[in-house]
Amino acid sequence: MVATAAASSFFPVPSPSGDAKASKFGSVSASLGGIKTKSASSGALQVNTNAQAPPKINGPPVGLTASVETLKNEDVVSSPAPRTFINQLPDWSMLLAAITTMFLAAEKQWMMLDWKPKRPDMLIDPFGIGRIVQDGLVFRQNFSIRSYEIGADRTASIETLMNHLQETALNHVKTAGLLGDGFGATPEMSKRNLIWVVTRMQILVDRYPTWGDVVQVDTWVGASGKNGMRRDWLVRDAKTGETLTRASSVWVMMNKVTRRLSKIPEEVRGEIEPYFLTSDPVVNEDSRKLPKIDDNTADYICESLTPRWNDLDVNQHVNNVKYIGWILESAPPPILESHELAAITLEYRRECGRDSVLRSLTAVSDTGIGNLGSPGGVEFQHLLRLEEGAEIVRGRTEWRPKHADNFGITGHIPAESA
């Protein structure tokens, strides 16, 4: 029966019902493998499809039952559209999709540049210059602890903290509009060749931040005697508000030409006094006298310390942060490995320049919070002097065992003055 159906596609089969049956199915020209047959006028073979459908093969009739109209419609759909100007244009939907993709990518890049926090605990400007708060009397700035600012203990070094203090002090003067052409000098100070020099610094470290932490530094100034200025700092964890470091310092004026100390001129006082905050020091002053030590009383000595060019500031003297590094050069290595610096008090006696050669001396304190043999804290006396004997800095340091509890003293910003 399969052979009969195949043969009936090419050869006419007599229909028992005559022309009536034949007219029901009609006759069409067959298309073989998608190739259309030519008309009879061209002399090509014309195939008649007046084949009778086979009765049934286990179901409905099988055969060519499509009507002429259906075959005509299929032929129209399969024919390609004529070539015109319109259908030669590009696919506008694909072009629109490509443009949309480019705009979305550009928007994503712009959002990355114009970054804004999505959570309250994310800082708005962790790397900015800072801002004035509390009625213009307190300056606040955030710092992110970088990988190159941490030491062997994976915590920020004391030099890093000191640099943060110094940076906020200068930015405070700059943001307040008092920065002249000197290093932290006001316009009236610049006219008189005056600069600020630190005479005393006291720092208490409750906890050292680590890599990736963001610290918030607040600083303010106040009067210190008739010819001095006190500057305080409060360093806290920017996320939790935990107090990390407190520091207080005293500054006086020096003529950068004569290198002599100077009184505060009235013109300069008029510039800075509106920014003074009346408050107690953030660190209670350690009134104990810093003793003088020499080569005979020192337990540890480090010699031939010389400043490098990068150790000088714009006033052509060694930056005060560098002094701390030199002082710690003579600290005993076992203490550096087992303890961390908890407090430091420094008295600056004179400056030194690029040609200076210094000696660092350290003595274990006879009194205080402990000694090298105790499991608790240790206290040292320090002296940094020139090789010929002139004193540069006297100091005292207190050390606690690493991972010990901090002092537990909560720092605070002083209340606004009336």
UniProtKB/TrEMBL annotation:
<feature type="domain" description="Acyl-ACP thioesterase-like C-terminal">
    <location>
        <begin position="298"/>
        <end position="400"/>
    </location>
</feature>
<feature type="domain" description="Acyl-ACP thioesterase N-terminal hotdog">
    <location>
        <begin position="136"/>
        <end position="271"/>
    </location>
</feature>
<dbReference type="InterPro" id="IPR045023">
    <property type="entry name" value="FATA/B"/>
</dbReference>
<dbReference type="InterPro" id="IPR049427">
    <property type="entry name" value="Acyl-ACP_TE_C"/>
</dbReference>
<keyword id="KW-0809">Transit peptide</keyword>
<dbReference type="InterPro" id="IPR002864">
    <property type="entry name" value="Acyl-ACP_thioesterase_NHD"/>
</dbReference>
<keyword id="KW-0150">Chloroplast</keyword>
<dbReference type="Pfam" id="PF20791">
    <property type="entry name" value="Acyl-ACP_TE_C"/>
</dbReference>
<protein>
    <recommendedName>
        <fullName>Acyl-[acyl-carrier-protein] hydrolase</fullName>
        <ecNumber>3.1.2.-</ecNumber>
    </recommendedName>
</protein>
<keyword id="KW-0934">Plastid</keyword>
<comment type="similarity">
    <text>Belongs to the acyl-ACP thioesterase family.</text>
</comment>
<dbReference type="GO" id="GO:0016297">
    <property type="term" value="F:fatty acyl-[ACP] hydrolase activity"/>
</dbReference>
<keyword id="KW-0443">Lipid metabolism</keyword>
<keyword id="KW-0276">Fatty acid metabolism</keyword>
<feature type="region of interest" description="Disordered">
    <location>
        <begin position="1"/>
        <end position="20"/>
    </location>
</feature>
<dbReference type="InterPro" id="IPR021113">
    <property type="entry name" value="Acyl-ACP-thioesterase_N"/>
</dbReference>
<keyword id="KW-0444">Lipid biosynthesis</keyword>
<comment type="function">
    <text>Plays an essential role in chain termination during de novo fatty acid synthesis.</text>
</comment>
<feature type="domain" description="Acyl-ACP-thioesterase N-terminal">
    <location>
        <begin position="1"/>
        <end position="125"/>
    </location>
</feature>
<dbReference type="Pfam" id="PF12590">
    <property type="entry name" value="Acyl-thio_N"/>
</dbReference>
<feature type="compositionally biased region" description="Low complexity">
    <location>
        <begin position="1"/>
        <end position="12"/>
    </location>
</feature>
<dbReference type="GO" id="GO:0000036">
    <property type="term" value="F:acyl carrier activity"/>
</dbReference>
<keyword id="KW-0275">Fatty acid biosynthesis</keyword>
<dbReference type="Pfam" id="PF01643">
    <property type="entry name" value="Acyl-ACP_TE"/>
</dbReference>
<dbReference type="GO" id="GO:0009507">
    <property type="term" value="C:chloroplast"/>
</dbReference>
<keyword id="KW-0378">Hydrolase</keyword>
